[in-house]
Structure of 3D domain-containing protein:
Amino acid sequence: MQPRSMVMAAFTSLTLLVTSGHHASESDRTLPSLMAPNLSTAQAAPQKLFVEHTVQAGDTLYSIAARYNTKIEHIIGHNPKVEPQALTVGLVLQVPANTVQKAKTREEQAQTADQMVLSSSGEPNRYSRKIPCKLTAYTNSFESTGKHPGDPGYGITASGRASKEGLTIAVDPAVIPMHSVVYIPGIGVRYAEDTGGAVIGNHIDVFYNDDQDAQNFGVKNNIMVYVLEEGPRES
């Protein structure tokens, strides 16, 4: 073999060694698994991805779960000593990611509203289910949220998004899953982005910017609410 050929052969061998693997990015890291000796990576069952999340000011289990497309129960299950109502800033959580379908963006949710058509009876032509609900209203005020402007998480919903009039409602996730799209007659299409300690069962709290508007809203009982699209379920 000529010297040039020997150099090229060595270079080719080195290239094959280098390109036979890759550095794992943050999104590639999975739990280690035991595989049969002859089982290829492509044939192996995919493992759930875990992420270390350091709690920041304003974080809630709902917002963390939404960020990583998982469920609160999964986070608590892997962090049994965590107090859900008292997250400590700086606490490191082991968060299983991508265990539910990804929640839609507000723009994607708006498309559902644009496509809604009411029948002659006033019901949407298409919906997942309908449930009678008690309706109340809330604002970002201290009376509603227990937070003042400047407090961590002020104006931020349980989903991690900023509350918005004409869009946000608070729900009991056990009844209406977070990120569901609902139609409330006389009010319009709203999105389940928040929760509340007093919002239990068939109860929806509608967000308003102005305290007076929320007070004028009062309490409305037995209003039929239509779930146009259910929030993400487990994959």
Observations:
- The beta strands are 49-54, 92-97, 129-138, 168-170, 181-184, 188-194, 203-207, 220-229.
- Residues 1-46 have pLDDT under 50 and may be disordered.
- The radius of gyration is 24 Å.
- The chain has two domains: 43-97, 106-229.
